[in-house]
């Protein structure tokens, strides 16, 4: 498993607060359904990460996801592959 940092994970999830440089704790991670830009096409970073995770999980990539949908799919695939999830 490749370790990742919080900023990298926020970037792949499309977190709109990443550029602020402020770490406000858990409230900086918003529900994708409440993102103001959640209905826009996923970012290039999200698509790249989805491709990586989907390949590792042996699943197809959906190229037509929104930012919010991509974020949710990334989270699902992270749990499936063990990438980007904390080991509790």
Characterization of the model:
The chain has 88 residues and is mostly helical. The chain has a domain at 39-88. Helices cover 42% and strands 0% of the residues. The protein is built from three helices and no strands. The chain has helices at residues 6-13, 44-57, 67-81. Helix 2 packs parallel to helix 3. Residues 1-8 and 16-22 have low confidence and may be disordered. InterPro entries: DUF3072. Pfam families: DUF3072. Residues 1-47 are annotated as: Disordered.
Oligomer: single chain
The 3D shape can be described as: globular
**Rg, nearest Å:** 13 Å
Q: What portion of the residues fall into strands of 2 or more residues?
A: under 5%
Major β-sheet, in short? Answer: none
Tally of DSSP helical segments: 3
Low-confidence stretches: 1-8, 16-22
Helix content: 40-55%
Q: End-to-end span in angstroms?
A: 15 Å
N-to-C order of helices and strands: HHH
User: Which class best fits the helix and strand makeup?
Assistant: mainly alpha
**Residue-averaged pLDDT:** 77
| Topology, number of strands | 0
Protein name: DUF3072 domain-containing protein
Region (Disordered): 1-47
Pfam family, one: DUF3072
Biased composition (Basic and acidic residues): 7-42
Summarize the structure.
With 88 residues, this protein is mostly helical.
List its traits.
DUF3072; 88 residues; mainly alpha; DUF3072 domain-containing protein; disordered N terminus; single chain
